[in-house]
Protein: Putative diguanylate cyclase/phosphodiesterase with PAS/PAC sensor domain(S)
Organism: Saccharothrix espanaensis
Amino acid sequence: MAAPGRSNLDPAVLAGAESFARTWATAVIGSSYVPMTRAEVAEHLQALTEVLVHALHASPFRTAPGYEIGARLVEAHFTGTDTLGRTVQLLGDDLLGELGIAPDEVMRSRLAALQGALAAGYARALRERTLAEQEAIRAAVLDARDQAEAALRASEARFRAMFTEAAIGIGIADIEGRILDVNQALQDMLGFSVEEMRQYNIRDLMHPEDGSSVWRLYDQLTAGECDHYRAEKRFRRADGEQVWTHLTLSLVRDDHGDPQYQVAMIEDVTDRHLLQNRLRYQALHDPLTGLPNRALFLERLGRVFNNRNRRRAGLCYLDLDGFKVINDSLGHDIGDQLLVEVGRRLDHSVSGEGKLVARMGGDEFVILVEGSRDTQDIVNVADRVLRELESPIRIGGHELTVSASIGIVERALSGTTAADLMRDADITLYWAKADGKSRWALYDPDRNAKEVARFTLSATMPAALERDEFYVDYQPLVRLEDSTVVGVEALVRWQHPEFGRLAPDRFIELAEETGLIVPLGRWVLRRACEQGRRWLEEFGDAAPFVSVNLAVRQSRDPELVRDVKRILDECALPPHHLQLELTESAIMGTADEPLEALRALSDMGVRIAIDDFGTGYSNLAYLKHLPVHELKIAGSFMEGLRAADEEDPVDAQIVSTLVQLAHALQLGVTAEGVETPAQAKRLHRIGCDTGQGWFFAKPMKPESIDEMLRR
């Protein structure tokens, strides 16, 4: 219903209508939830007030506008329990006064009629709205029920289709394990009909080789402690064959959460299982010999250490001698056939419970003996293997003889690990090869400790040089005629933080092997030249020359001459105050090679000496061609001259001959290893120029040399 135009209302009446609308809005705003702002509520009620004003003055008078106003209040959601009462009361108390209308009988009668019509319209609209809402709710309930029933029917249809047509086996049982139903796939899988399966309890399907965990989990599921589990399980078919399956067992609970049914979903994985077994066999066995490979061996060795019934174990680590020669000369095909035959012989000779033969790779094999009693058990195995390999092997028209080196380790399992056992067997194998091959060697902890110490020294040597752990001692070279110190030999030492003071025999060979001998020798040369310069400054012409040993690799270093010249220049040491010592083997080994380095050093004024003369090549014919100034006769020839009462005539003759030869070549002679006064006198009588040894002094600090020189 549209309100008449506002232009028909007196301005004073219109102002009164606006005032009443605001009062009406204040009265009803708190009684209902209306989706309007306060201003929008006032505007809406003002329009209704104007309709009332026009209805009061209309001619003829009608109550229909009041009825419509009640309906519009409900339509605008003014439906609170107090809304209608407040509205009717407010109309009767304030409307005429706000509008400035005299409350005569006519106006009161019209207002009362409009109030009644408003209440009737409000009540009818509210009832129709309630009925509409109830009908909507009823329709929604019916629709929801229909949808639920349809969904249930569809769900049951889907379940039945899935249960019947599923490619995997499905079985349903009660909580006691009685089988209630199985689908066609499970019947085909196990070869039983539904009726036959219903005669079984789930526990009747236990396989004697089922893992204990399968049935432990089953007991937990039926007790309601878990809702599902998965497992690999075997079943017996009706024809006696076995089927490998992947089993998923789930628990169905009732409305109270108590276990009610169990549902099994069973997938036939027999083919996959056989394939996995085949792949596992291939992964754990050597494809050439068919023997277990390294992976299977290490797995078995790990189980030995986890087996509490095993207290001891032994290993034979075996490597064929000379296999590379056969492989390279006759071809890899012959080599492979040889390995196959060796593997067959090993497997044949070392068979029985608790023994395993495996190929580790290449021509290496290993034999594991579990539960050995003592070392002799493993030695017996090694002897049997060596005997088995003695007879020739005929391959492709070739008669091949093969031998093996074997490293043996046997020990108690407590206090060691599988890695320790393998490492020690590997080390012992190389001992057997180093000792001559075609034999076995027993693990020796003392020998291993020395090897470990050797490796440790080799690894720490570069850092030791940077940390100044090396130092130089000096041993006097004494003129036999008057006991004057004419020279000193520089001898490097290593003050190791763990092993203490180390003599050169502990690390020089390692330095040669690792190549560190070149920087180490350069360092010793510099230290010796620096010390030689200090003696020269203090003692002048009486200062001794310094003699420094050159290793083989140093003598072949292309930078040798340049290094020596630079160090002499930087230390301001005259070249004739430096003597370089090379072993006889080293200097004779270069006799047929260019000797420019030694000649350049000699031309520079540096003295060249042959150390330990008589223990190497002893190629006397080469001496006159070498740039040598001094021969140092090896101390082994001095032993026969040591006794106080008599001398060994053979040693005396050898030394005398060497001295005569050296003097004939205008070379000086130094006797090494002088330990007694008798030796010193005899050597002087024979003609040696200088002597060196503990009789004169042991290697000492530079300060002690200072005291000798001052005396």
In short: The chain has four domains: 11-135, 166-274, 285-443, 458-710.
